[in-house]
Amino acid sequence: MSFHDKCAVVGVWNHPSASFLTYLSLYALQHRGQEGAGIVSLKDGKHLSYKNQGLVGDIFTKDKLDSLKGKGAIGHTRYSTTGLNELKNIQPLTWNLNGGPLSVAHNGNIVNHALLKKKFRIFTKGESDTECLLPLIKYYEDKDIGQSLLKALAQLEGAYSLVFLTKDSLIVARDPMGFRPLVLGQKDQAYIVASETCAFDLIGAKYLREIKAGEILIFNKKGMKSLFLPQAKKKAQCIFEYVYFSRPDSLVFNKSVYEKRKKMGEYLAKEHPVEADVVIPVPDSGIPAAIAYSQTIGIPYEMGIIRNHYVGRTFIQPSSLIRNFKIKIKLNPQAFVKGKKVVAIDDSIVRGSTSKALIEVLKTAGAKEVHLRVSSPPIKGPCYYGVDTPQKKQLISGQKESVEEIRQFIGADSLAYLSYENFLKIGNKKDFCLACFDEKYPTAIYN
After folding, report:
1. CATH T-level topology, domain 4-233
2. Contact present, 442 and 177 (Cβ < 8 Å)
3. How many helices (H) and strands (E) would you count in the chain?
4. 3-state DSSP assignment of residue 445
5. I need a labelling partner for 329 at 20 to 30 A (CA). Which of 129, 141, 167, 243 fits?
6. Dihedrals φ, ψ of 179, to 5°?
7. What distance in Å separates the CA atoms of residue 248 and residue 261, rounded to the nearest whole number?
8. Cα separation values, 248 from 29, 159, 192, 445, Å
């Protein structure tokens, strides 16, 4: 069981095939949300919309995309943080403002959304925290949409990377602490914003820069204009983007995710070497760390586990008919592990159930020993900033008092985590949110 990032957002401005570029960008960002997706395009001051449950490639046919004409578009893939997995909660969401439409897509989590709904008497049809945004902007309605957003967004606490589409503009905004990533690119005369740079690689766009923490960036016929929310005392960029969420080929917070993961593996090898025959990754996010661990310790690297990438969320499971079926349908060991002392490298342990099943599967395949090495510290607390995490009582490090107890539970011959001290070398306390590891939350938490 891993953490799940909540969403991806995309915005395209000033391109004749804006909706198609949005679709391709969402496709590249599918790993950030698989429950549903939507696109809203702008044509002649009106919004054209289509959204549905499922994967991006299944939702948007050529006919659907052809119906979303216009030179501006925003898009979203969803993995629910708040609200059930239902069509009414799929974004972008649309409202009416200044006599025209306003649509929004959101990555993150507004921790004070319940209080805002009560304070401003906001009533919504769905259950998403994002739904408080549009009525709040309406409350601060101004002829200048930028001023409306400055006042409305100042009321929010928590994480938000936002893309808005109005009757004549594309607007993007990032919270003052910069929790979730948001980047700006360019393709010919068009501007693209997305959650990760891997979206730019697919559509042939040039990466320009990060959207700054607290920045509101407005695109319209006049060009591009930046406004800024009051500066936060500190940044709180999500360090788990480097551990698991982001694609390894992305630049996140201006750094290579792949190189960060390799550095974790290097530190892990220096801290916790082990005598073994082979190093194998737990795919996919464990691969870069495993490569570096192998290179550092001098033990051969092999793909000892093969991942099935085509497992749907609605797959019908055969009850208890096949032992460890959930892990086998996703991860299957190679025959060469038989008789070998194996070092398996994973990015994290959440509940512990997946690690337990994986080790049992490897030993059933004949592995002589299985030593688990984890390229991040123990996860001690849930995330409240746009990540689907278990409650503290469901986290294995919240249940067990020691690493040895966790080792016994999962059945590994040895278990070791990357130390918090070395982990900080990939992202310091000054700029990153480390709350899932140290429970020091950068904002108030509203339960």
Report:
1. Glutamine Phosphoribosylpyrophosphate, subunit 1, domain 1 (3.60.20)
2. yes
3. 16, 25
4. coil
5. 243
6. -55, -60
7. 8
8. 12, 22, 20, 31
pLDDT score recorded for residue 1: 41
Q: Of 7, 132, 198, 383, which residue is the catalytic one?
A: 7
**Nearby residues of 313 by Cβ (< 8 Å), 6 or more positions away:** 34, 35
Longest dimension (CA), the chain: 72
User: To 5 degrees, how large is the angle CA 1–CA 85–CA 386?
Assistant: 60
From residue 382, alpha-carbon distances to 226, 395, 396, 407 in Å are 34, 8, 12, 21
Contacts of 398 (CB under 8 A, 6+ apart): 380, 381, 392
Report yes or no: 77 and 36 within 8 Å, Cβ to Cβ: yes
What's the rounded Cα separation, in Å, for the pair 393 and 409? Answer: 16
Return the H-helix or E-strand segment holding 372: strand 369-374
At 103, is the secondary structure helix, strand, or coil?
strand
Amino acid residing at 345: I
> How far apart are the C-alpha atoms of 13 and 246, rounded to whole Å?
24
CA atoms within 13 A on the CB side of 264: 34
- Per-residue pLDDT at 377: 97
Q: Tokens representing 219?
A: 């695109």
Using only C-alpha atoms, the chain has a radius of gyration, in whole angstroms, of 22
Domain ranges of the chain: 4-233, 251-307+315-438
User: What count of Cα atoms within 13 Å lies in the side-chain half-sphere of residue 43?
Assistant: 13
Residue-wise pLDDT for 250-279, tens only, equals 999 999 999 999 999 999 999 999 999 999
The amino acid present at 201, given as its one-letter code, is D
Q: Which of 27, 23, 24 is nearest to 40 (CA)?
A: 23
Phi, psi of 374 (to 5 degrees): -115, 125
pLDDT at position 388 is 73
pLDDT recorded at residue 121: 83
31's tokens: 């790993």
Instruction: Return the CATH fold of 251-307+315-438.
Output: Rossmann fold (3.40.50)
CA–CA gap between residue 250 and residue 81 (Å, rounded): 23
Q: Is the peptide bond before 284 cis (omega within 30 degrees of 0)?
A: yes
- Residue 1: what residue type? M
Residue 198 is a catalytic residue: no
Q: What would the pLDDT profile of 30-57 be if each residue is shown by its tens digit?
A: 999 988 999 999 999 999 999 999 999 9
Residues of the chain with pLDDT under 50: 1, 4-5, 81-83, 313-315
